[in-house]
Amino acid sequence: MLFFSFFKTLVDQEVTLKNDIELKGTLKSVDQFLNLKLDNISCSNESKYPHLTSVRNIFIRGSTVRYVYLNKNMVDTNLLQDAARREAMTEKK
Amino acid sequence: MSPLLKDYLGQRIVIITTEGECYVATLEGYDKSVNLLLSNVRRRSDDELLSIALTLRGSEVVVCGLLSNNEVGKLGEEVPALKDTKNKVQDEYLIWEEVLKARLIK
Amino acid sequence: MSFFGFDTSGNQAKDRDGRDIQKPLDFEDTYKGLGDYDNEEEDFLNAETFGATAEFGTDFDFGHGNGGNEPANNANSYATASRSYVAAASSGVEHQPQATLDASVDLKPMESLWSSSGPVIQQQEQPQVLSMEELERQQRQRQMGGQPGFMGMPPPNYGMPPPPQMQMHNQYPGPFPPQGMQGIPPQFQHMPVMFNQGQPQAQGIPNQAQFSPMYQPQLHNQGEGQGLPSEQAGQGASPAPQALESPIPAPPALSPQPQQQQQLQHPMSPPQMISPPHTPREHGRQSRGQSRREPLTAEEQKRLQIRQAKVEKILRHSGLMTPRDKDFITRYQLSQIVTDDPYNEDFYFQVYKIIQRGGVVGESNKDLIARAYLEHSGHRLGGRYKRADVALQRMQSQVEKAVTVAKERPQKSKDHSDAAREGVLGKISSAMNSKAPRRQLQIPVHKTGDESAIADDNSSGKASRGSTPALNVVTQSLEKVEISQQSRARRRSSYAFTSVDQSSVLSRSGGRKFVLSLIETVYEEVLELEAQLRGGSNIDSTALWEALHIGDESYEVCPFISMLSFDKGIKIMPRIFNFLNNGQKLKLLQTFFGELSHLNIIIISSYKTNASPTESQLKQIELFQAVFLKIIVSFLSSSANFIEIMGLLLYLIKNNNVSFISTSKIGLNLITVLISRAALIRQDINRSNVLSSPEISAWNEVYDKLFTSLETKLSLVFPPKEYTDKVVRTTLGSVSGSPPVIAASPQHYDQAYIWQFLASLALSGKLNHQRIIIDEIRDEIFGTINVAEELGKGQEDQPASQYKKDKLYQDLNLFLNVMGLVARDGEITELK
C-alpha cells in the first residue's frame, strides 16, 4: 500500500511517465495496482509516436510503467522512510 | 474494481498493447485486472476494422487514452511502428544456462 | 469475471445414495479467494529479475557517510525533508487536545469520498466496525431470517453503504471521491432505491426535490431533451422512483426505435427487474456524451441510437443479480478499500497531506491525529529552512551571554589583572606585533591569591565531600580519573588512533551489519511508540531503551556510539529523546561523552585524523551539528543541573584524550557546550548564592583536570592552514554556481567555534588560566588581527570583505572580552 499511498500525494501534480513513449501530464488518480490516470497529456516524442494525438486523458496500466519522474520537492523523504519502515513492520507481523 | 476506466465506458479509446499495436475501439467493459471488452476495434494507423468485438487481456494493455471528441483517429499509413514493451533479451537462454550452471556448482 | 465462482457444470452435492441434494449455494462455500488478484504473467521470473533470493535485511545505509562518493543531493535530503515536519508541526500544534483523537470522532474525511451520494449519509454512524466475516454473517442471517429485502438496514447504509470504519480514512484526495463512487458498478448505486422503497421518505425525497426542477427544464430547453448534467446523473439513485412513474422522456429528434425497444422491454422483464433503477443510468450515459457537444449532428444521433440500443441489450440481463447480491458485492468491494487503521496502511499519504496543508483552518479533526504524530515524532531536524548552524548559534548565544555577564561583573582586582595582562600581551600596537618576539610570561611577583584560593577550595572540597549523592559520584570519579584501568586503555586506544578506521570501531561494537540493523530496530521501536501515542495508549519505552544498548558492557565500543556513525542513526535521535525520561537521557549522554573518542564524527572532523575531509564528510558534520548537538544544547539548558553537567564533563575528561578531541570541530563544540553552560549556571547561582562550596570546589577540580589536559596544546585547536584551505575549497565545490563574488574575496575558514571555545574556557578559569591561554594562542590572536586588517586594507569598498573583517573581529572579541579586552582597528585595548 505504500506506493499507492505515495502516489496519492502526487495527484494534481505533473509527472512524466516513460515507457518508450514519454508522457507528461497531470496525475488525476491512481489505484492500488498503481494504474494511473493522467489528464492534459503531452507526448514529448510525439513526432516519433503520433499514436496518441488527440488524446488528452489517458489511463495507464500500472504494470507497464517504467519510470515516473518526480519533482524533488514533491517528496518528503524522511516521511517516506518512516512509511516504508512501517510497511516493513506490518509485513513482518 | 478500478474506477479509473469508468469514465471511458462506451467511448472511443486508443489502446496501445504490449505488442506495440495501436487500436481504436469502443470500451464496453473491463474488470479490475484491466481485461478489456472492446467493440468496433480498428487499427489506429489505417482505420481498418479488425474485429467487431474483442476481449483483451489486461496484461496486454499498456495505455488506454480517451479519444477527444470521439473522432475517428485515423493517422495515416506512414505511422512508425511502436516498440513492444516486452524488453526481450537477446539470446536470453544463454543467460539462463549460465544461471543454472552457477546454481549447480553451488 | 465470475464473482461467485458459480459452478455451472451442475456438479452438485450428492448424498450417499447418489441423489442430488438441492442445497442453496452458500457464499462461504463458493466464494473463497476468487476475487483475488491474478498473478501477472511471468511473475514467477520476478525472483530472478529482482534478486528476491537476496536477504531482505535491515542493515542498509543510504546516508552520506558511505565512501564519500555519493551524490550531493543525497546529503541535502535531510534538509529538504525536514522542512515540512516542522512547518506542519509549528502550525497550531498548541491546541492539541489528546482526547479528541478518538477515532470515532473523525467522520469528515469520508464525507468527501461519499459526498456524491448526499450529505445525509453522514447523519448517523454505526459505532462498531464490521470485518468481512461479520458482513458475510449478517448477510447470511438476513437471508435465513427472511427479512424482506433490506428493510432492516440502518439508514446510513443506504445510498452508498459507508461502513463506519471507512469514515476514518480519507482514502481519496480531492479529485478522487466522485470516482470512488463511480468505482461501484452503476447498478449498485441504485440499490438503495430498491431497498428502501418501503421507506422512501428517508433520502430519496430531498434529493429528488432538488433534482427534478433541474431535470425538467433541461428536458424542454434542449431539443434533444436528455441533457442531464452528468453530476446529477451521477447522483443517480434518488431520482429513480420518479423515473419509475414517469415514462422516459424520449427526445423528439430521435427515431422511435429505442423507445419501442424500451416499451417492449417492460413486459418482458420480471417485475422486480424492471428497469427503473437503471433508467437514470441511461440518462447519465447519454448526458455524458451530450454535455460535451451541444448540437447533435446526424451522425452523432445515429451513434446515440446505437448506444441506446446497446443499453437496452444490457438491460435484458439486469435482473440476474438480486439486490442482496449487489449489496454483498458492494460491501465486499468496500471492505477491500477500507482499513481499521489508515495510519498503518496509508501512512505516507495521510501525514503528507497534513504536512502540505500545514494544518489549515477549516480542516476538521482528522488532522489532529496527524498533528499528534508530528508533534510527538519531534520536529525533527530543526526547522523549515533552518540550517545546520542553528545549534551553533544557540551555543554561541550561550557563550555570548556568559561573556556579557562576565563583562558586567565588577572587577574587584582591576590592578592585578591589568598588570598580569600587560605581561602577557605586552603593550601592543598590533600591526607589527605578530612578528615581535614572544615575551616571557611575567608572572607577577605579588601573589594574587588565586592559587591559594584554589588550594583552599581543594582542601575545603575534600573536607565536605559527600554532601549530596550526585556530588559524591562526581567527586568519587574525580579521584578515579588518574587510575581507571579501563579508561586508560580507552585513552591509549584513541590516542593511537585505532579509532580512525571506522570499520574497526564498528567491529568492536558488534559489526557494521549489527549496528545498522540495530538502528532499524530503534526506528521500529520509535514508530511503534509514536503509534501508541497516537492511539492514546500508555507508552512503554523500555524496549526502545534496550534497543539503544546503552551501558551494554558486552562490546568494547558501545553500539550506541556506532549508531551515530550513520546518518539515519543521527536523524532518529530527536525522536528517541521524546520517549526518554531525564535519567535515561543523562545516561545516554554519559555514554556519549564517555566514548567520544570512538565517535566517528569526531574522527572525521579532526584535522589530525582526517586531514582532507570529503564533501560528504563535511555534510555529515553539518548534520550532526544540526541534529545531535542541538539536542544536547537543549537538554543541557533545560533539564540538566550543575552537577549533571559537571558529571558529563568529567566523563569526557576521564575517558578520552581531551587534546585529541579538541582538534576536532565537533569535539570542541561539545566541550564548549558543557563549560559554557556550566559557566552560565555558576553566574546565575552566584547571584543567588545557591551553589554550595563543595560544588564549587568540585567544579574547580574538574576544570583543572580539563585545563591540565589541554595545557601546552591549546594552540592545536586551531587547524593548520592546509586543512582550513581544503575545507573551504571542498565547501565551495559543493555550492558551485554560487556568485562569483567568492572568487574575488577568498573565503575564510570560520573559526568562530574556536573563539567560542576559548572564550568559555577562559570564562571558567581563574586569572592564571586566562594568562596561560593567551600566552599559548598569542600568535593566533595577532594572526587573526592581521588577516582582518589585510581584508580591510585592500578592498574597503567591498562590502563582502568589510563584513568578513567585522566578523573576524567579532569572533576574536568574544574571547578577548572575557578578559576585559577588545581588539579594534589593529589594536588591542581595554574594554570600557
UniProtKB/TrEMBL annotation, chain A:
<dbReference type="GO" id="GO:0005732">
    <property type="term" value="C:sno(s)RNA-containing ribonucleoprotein complex"/>
</dbReference>
<comment type="similarity">
    <text>Belongs to the snRNP Sm proteins family.</text>
</comment>
<dbReference type="GO" id="GO:0000290">
    <property type="term" value="P:deadenylation-dependent decapping of nuclear-transcribed mRNA"/>
</dbReference>
<protein>
    <recommendedName>
        <fullName>LSM complex subunit LSm2</fullName>
    </recommendedName>
</protein>
<feature type="domain" description="Sm">
    <location>
        <begin position="1"/>
        <end position="74"/>
    </location>
</feature>
<dbReference type="InterPro" id="IPR016654">
    <property type="entry name" value="U6_snRNA_Lsm2"/>
</dbReference>
<dbReference type="GO" id="GO:0000398">
    <property type="term" value="P:mRNA splicing, via spliceosome"/>
</dbReference>
<dbReference type="GO" id="GO:0008266">
    <property type="term" value="F:poly(U) RNA binding"/>
</dbReference>
<dbReference type="GO" id="GO:0071011">
    <property type="term" value="C:precatalytic spliceosome"/>
</dbReference>
<keyword id="KW-0539">Nucleus</keyword>
<keyword id="KW-0694">RNA-binding</keyword>
<dbReference type="GO" id="GO:0005730">
    <property type="term" value="C:nucleolus"/>
</dbReference>
<keyword id="KW-0507">mRNA processing</keyword>
<keyword id="KW-0508">mRNA splicing</keyword>
<dbReference type="GO" id="GO:0030620">
    <property type="term" value="F:U2 snRNA binding"/>
</dbReference>
TrEMBL record, chain B:
<dbReference type="GO" id="GO:0005681">
    <property type="term" value="C:spliceosomal complex"/>
</dbReference>
<dbReference type="Pfam" id="PF01423">
    <property type="entry name" value="LSM"/>
</dbReference>
<dbReference type="InterPro" id="IPR010920">
    <property type="entry name" value="LSM_dom_sf"/>
</dbReference>
<dbReference type="GO" id="GO:0003723">
    <property type="term" value="F:RNA binding"/>
</dbReference>
<dbReference type="GO" id="GO:0005688">
    <property type="term" value="C:U6 snRNP"/>
</dbReference>
<protein>
    <recommendedName>
        <fullName>Sm domain-containing protein</fullName>
    </recommendedName>
</protein>
<dbReference type="GO" id="GO:0005730">
    <property type="term" value="C:nucleolus"/>
</dbReference>
<dbReference type="GO" id="GO:0046540">
    <property type="term" value="C:U4/U6 x U5 tri-snRNP complex"/>
</dbReference>
<dbReference type="GO" id="GO:0006364">
    <property type="term" value="P:rRNA processing"/>
</dbReference>
<dbReference type="GO" id="GO:0008033">
    <property type="term" value="P:tRNA processing"/>
</dbReference>
<dbReference type="GO" id="GO:0000398">
    <property type="term" value="P:mRNA splicing, via spliceosome"/>
</dbReference>
<feature type="domain" description="Sm">
    <location>
        <begin position="3"/>
        <end position="66"/>
    </location>
</feature>
<dbReference type="InterPro" id="IPR001163">
    <property type="entry name" value="Sm_dom_euk/arc"/>
</dbReference>
UniProtKB/TrEMBL annotation, chain C:
<keyword id="KW-0694">RNA-binding</keyword>
<dbReference type="Pfam" id="PF09770">
    <property type="entry name" value="PAT1"/>
</dbReference>
<feature type="region of interest" description="Disordered">
    <location>
        <begin position="428"/>
        <end position="470"/>
    </location>
</feature>
<dbReference type="InterPro" id="IPR039900">
    <property type="entry name" value="Pat1-like"/>
</dbReference>
<dbReference type="GO" id="GO:0045947">
    <property type="term" value="P:negative regulation of translational initiation"/>
</dbReference>
<feature type="domain" description="mRNA decay factor PAT1">
    <location>
        <begin position="1"/>
        <end position="534"/>
    </location>
</feature>
<dbReference type="GO" id="GO:1990726">
    <property type="term" value="C:Lsm1-7-Pat1 complex"/>
</dbReference>
<comment type="similarity">
    <text>Belongs to the PAT1 family.</text>
</comment>
<dbReference type="GO" id="GO:0033962">
    <property type="term" value="P:P-body assembly"/>
</dbReference>
<dbReference type="InterPro" id="IPR019167">
    <property type="entry name" value="PAT1_dom"/>
</dbReference>
<dbReference type="GO" id="GO:0000776">
    <property type="term" value="C:kinetochore"/>
</dbReference>
<feature type="compositionally biased region" description="Basic and acidic residues">
    <location>
        <begin position="279"/>
        <end position="300"/>
    </location>
</feature>
<keyword id="KW-0963">Cytoplasm</keyword>
<dbReference type="GO" id="GO:0005634">
    <property type="term" value="C:nucleus"/>
</dbReference>
<dbReference type="GO" id="GO:0003729">
    <property type="term" value="F:mRNA binding"/>
</dbReference>
